[in-house]
Amino acid sequence: MRVALFITCLNDLLFPGTGRATVTLLRRLGCDVAFPRAQTCCGQMHLNTGYRRQGERLARRFAGVFTGYDAVVVPSGSCAATIRARHPLAAPAEGSGGAAEAMPGVYELSEFLVDVLGVTDVGAFFPHRVTYHPTCHSLRGLRLGDRPIHLLERVGGLELVPLPGAEECCGFGGTFALKNPAISTAMCADKVRNVAATGAEVLCAADNSCLTHIGGVLGRLRTGVRTLHLAEILAATEGAG
Amino acid sequence: MTSRELILARIRAAVASAPEAEAVRAHGVSPPAGEPGEPGDPVELFAGRVADYRATVHVTDGDGAAGVIAAALARRGVSRPVVPDGLPGEWTPAEFVADDPPLGAGELDRAEGVLTGCAVAIARTGTIVLDTGPGQGRRMLTLVPDYHLCVVRAGQIVAEVAEALERLDPALPLTWISGPSATSDIELNRVEGVHGPRTLEVVVVR
Amino acid sequence: MTATFLGMPAFPANAARAVHDAQLRANLRKATRTIRDRRAAAVAELPGWERLRAAGRQIKDHTLRNLDRYLLRMEEAVVRAGGHVHWAADAAEANRIVAGLVEATGENSAVKVKSMATQEIGLNEALAARGITVHETDLAELIVQLGGDLPSHILVPAIHRNRSEIREIFRTRMGARGRPAPEGLTDEPAALAEAARLHLRERFLAAKVAISGANFMIAETGTLVVLESEGNGRMCLTLPRTLISVVGIEKLLPTWRDLAVFLQLLPRSSTGERMNPYTSTWTGAAEGQEFHLVLLDNGRTAVLADEVGRQALRCIRCSACLNVCPVYERAGGHAYGSVYPGPIGAILTPQLHGMASELEASLPYASTLCGACFDVCPVAIDIPEVLVHLRGMAPHPRAERLAMRAAGWVLDRPERLGRAERLGLRLRRFVPRRLPGPLSAWTDTRDLPELPAESFRDWWERTGGGSGRPPERARRVGRRLPVRRSRAHAGDRERQERGERGGGGR
């Protein structure tokens, strides 16, 4: 299967490790992974902040870059949700369906693994206590449900502990974090309290944007809890025979 | 231009380019048969749901109704309930206050309680509907007194809200009652008993 | 004693103040979480909720599309049933009509059932200016009115007050407006409700004029519908000789049958009950009353004209969106500076009032777009979609505009992005722990992530996607893509332009 990786602009710049882990994982599962270099950004920040024209331009670019693959895999719930929910609206091509029709399926990573490849045991080993934050776009935008949980449950050595109040937003919200810092931080404080209560060493999510926010507070408060993207745990074979 | 014309013109301009939106025919109001939560015996369900509102419920048969009603009034200490015109004679106690001539709000405020029938009842929601018809009286009769004893015939109980609407005449003023008066305004805790009757007692006659 | 929302600062400032009020936070947290769980249980219990929700949405959309027709039908039916119908284009006109109607009765006071429309138009204040006293009769409205306070929730306007605060308000303020609170009043909710019952009893029995809103109007029959819990609504609708109902034009439903959908959606979404204690319906002049219906526009037709924003007019004011909103839970209702707080307020207020003030312009941003509001909305208003739509129309600060334009320019071409990333990461040692300017909002409370030595893009380039062989450099990396192209050629062009070689399978 010829799979294009859409790394997302945030991961490209700040979290290349997530990208490398995604590549490692997909190859391990037999995928031929391509990285179309003309890719940049799905336009989420512009679209969500009220800069529709620029956002739509990026959406059109996205459609052009990824046409012709079997599937596009995105290690980010919010970018995948933006593409799925907003691109057909934002970038209507001429003709019936247009770009949307020629576009391959765009999948968030766990969706791709569970629904397309049909695997939940990806052969990972990660002997740590982990809790999982579902993130709003994964939960309510993409309706990922328990897919990430099923994947984590089958990771060797991993102890998965439920996160209280998991479905509540962490308070990131893109530019919300800057425009409403007081509320954003208050929401995150509650999230962090819940994370700390689990006693987990690692907080995992399928979106590095939320993890940057939560991780920023976890770090500032010196909780000692690490944040890791789902891909990095699923790619890990740490200490396995 | 009157405000009426102005508003209508604004509406027409606002929706001129909007696509037509279909009217709803199949209302999706009644769950399809076999779905979980489908009411079983409507009398049982109705009685249970009324009780969930912390109202007192009795289920009896035609022969037992008069006795249950008399006992309920006695327990409450009501010797002369207000009884609207048209309440079946077998339910009416010997002593009662008739709404003839029409009682004033002050008189109703001093009344010990009111005894009525109803127009329709809904099993799924535990609701009683009064339509001011025979045995139900004017709206204020069941509002101002602090105690309301309501008799419901099994045949008046429908399963769903939609069926109730079909049986009711919108030209009549309707009062839908689901338990005693209540409020959730203090810390969103439900407290029974504010301005309407603080005690609702229901007798279901099979 | 009347507070006002006018001239409030923007949402972020209001919210920042509220979030540090520990008592308010605790009150809101407790109340919203209680109601959230109750709603979830009431909805889960009813089979076919999603179908019901779809029907609710469809009925409202159909009504709005044909609103002129249904309003005329409503008017005709009310008049046929002996009622009077008035049309008010804006708040001032509605207030003028109501004041005139009250004055015509010779009375100088009225009892009132809680209604969002009359709050929206500032009816109490307008009537007070004409010497007419309005007595709020809903328990929460009474708390707000006695406290000289502002409502902070659609369903429970005094949600920001806890029981001991309410006791204080009753003890100190009830006497000035009528029967004082009983001696030794405790803060038990039942005792507080009893105090309200006693305080309002005589007033109900003596009232000659009542003012209400309505939850629904049925065009086919001319029927008005009011849902309530306490019985104050029944008192107002039944006892006074004159009844004046001020109702937004979007409250219409076409047929009597349609009501079934909403009598199921509203109570379960709102108070989390199978049915609210009391629902009153009446058509025209009931039981010899004099009845006036005031149909209110006040900006609704402008909302109707916006093809994305008009879905906000489906709202049935259940407040489920407030109760699940993590921002509302922490900011409280007052921060929204409007009688419509929370997510629905964030899309309704800017549409009804425009976004000229700083406050209104800040409301579309008072959300993380987490989507919890959309999930619970009984008429499926896609609140995040409307928020984003309104953000597109809101005035943007200059610095933000420039930053967004710069980001757009960089992201428009992969080679620009690559260069910017390399530059940024090369300078990573110089990034301070605390960022300057608007970005300090981030680093005030959060650490920055550790910056990597190279971007993913460069890693892929250097290592051939980790396969150990650098990829063949494509000729036309990042050439700008044509925006429009015929589909016949699109595939070829894109294959050239994609400018990549797969890193290779295993």
Explained architecture:
The complex is a heterotrimer of chains A (241), B (206) and C (506). Chain A folds into 2 domains: 115 residues, Rossmann fold; 107 residues. Chain A contains 13 helices and 8 strands. In chain A, α11 packs across α12. Chain A starts with a strand and ends in a 6-residue tail after the last helix. The relative contact order of chain A is 0.16. Chain B is α/β, with parallel strands linked by helices and 206 residues long. Helices cover 24% and strands 23% of the residues of chain B. The longest helix of chain B is centred in the first third of the chain and has 13 residues. In chain C, β5 and β6 form a beta hairpin. Chain C is globular and about 90 Å long. Chain C has 24 helices and 10 strands. With 506 residues, chain C is α/β, with parallel strands linked by helices. Chains A and C meet through α1, α2, β2, α3 and α4 of A and α1, α15, α18, α19 and α20 of C. β9 of chain B pairs antiparallel with β9 of chain C.
Question: What's the structural blueprint in terms of helices and strands?
Answer:
The complex is a heterotrimer of chains A (241), B (206) and C (506).
Chain A (H helix, E strand, L loop, with lengths): L1 E4 L3 H6 L1 H13 L3 E3 L9 H6 L2 H15 L4 E4 L2 H14 L8 H4 L2 E4 H8 L12 E4 L3 H6 L5 H7 L5 E3 L14 H4 L1 H18 L3 E4 L2 H13 L5 E4 H6 L6
Parallel strand pairs in A: 1-2, 1-3, 3-4, 5-6, 5-7, 7-8
Helix pairs in contact in A: 11-12
Chain B lengths: L2 H13 L26 H11 L3 E5 L4 H12 L5 E2 L13 E2 L6 H6 L3 E3 L3 E3 L4 E4 L16 E7 L3 E2 L2 H7 L6 E4 L4 E5 L2 E4 L6 E7 L1
Parallel strand pairs in B: 1-12, 2-3, 4-7, 5-8, 7-12
Antiparallel strand pairs in B: 5-6, 6-9, 10-11
Chain C lengths: L10 H9 L2 H24 L3 H17 L1 H14 L3 E5 L2 H14 L4 E4 L3 H5 L2 H7 L3 E4 L2 H8 L16 H15 L11 H18 L2 E4 L3 E3 L4 E6 L3 H7 L3 E7 L3 E2 L5 H12 L7 E6 L6 E7 L3 H5 L15 H5 L1 H6 L10 H12 L4 H5 L9 H5 L6 H11 L4 H14 L2 H13 L13 H4 L12 H8 L23 H12 L8
Parallel strand pairs in C: 1-10, 2-3, 2-4, 4-7, 5-8, 7-10
Antiparallel strand pairs in C: 5-6, 6-9
Helix pairs in contact in C: 3-12, 9-10, 16-19
